[in-house]
Amino acid sequence: MEPIRKDKPSPTLFLLMTVVYFASYFGLKYGVFGGALPWGYNLLLIAACLGIAFFLRGRLGKQ
Questions:
Q1: What is the CA radius of gyration of the chain?
Q2: Which segments cross the bilayer (predicted)?
Q3: For residue range 11-54, what is the model confidence (pLDDT) as tens digits?
Q4: Nearest 5°: CA angle at 47, between 7 and 8?
Q5: Is 13 in a helix, a strand, or coil?
Q6: Partner of 2 at 20 to 30 A CA spacing, among 9, 27, 36, 52?
Q7: What distances in angstroms separate CA 25 from CA 5, 6, 14, 48, 58, one per listed residue?
Q8: 3-state SS class at 41
Q9: pLDDT by residue (tens digit) across 51-62?
Q10: How far apart are CA 55 and CA 13, in angstroms?
């Protein structure tokens, strides 16, 4: 078995980011846009979540 790599995010961080994405997606889709989320907003949401994940990975990796 391979030892745990320090540069990989923890499962907790992965689950947290997944929950944040889906909560944002469904909140925007059904809460704001009434069930019809434009594809551009979904693309921006994905980009924002990836940006936050890379930012957190860089910050958490330096500790």
A1: 15
A2: 12-33, 39-56
A3: 787 788 888 888 888 988 898 888 888 889 889 988 988 888 78
A4: 10
A5: helix
A6: 52
A7: 31, 30, 16, 12, 25
A8: helix
A9: 887 887 766 655
A10: 12
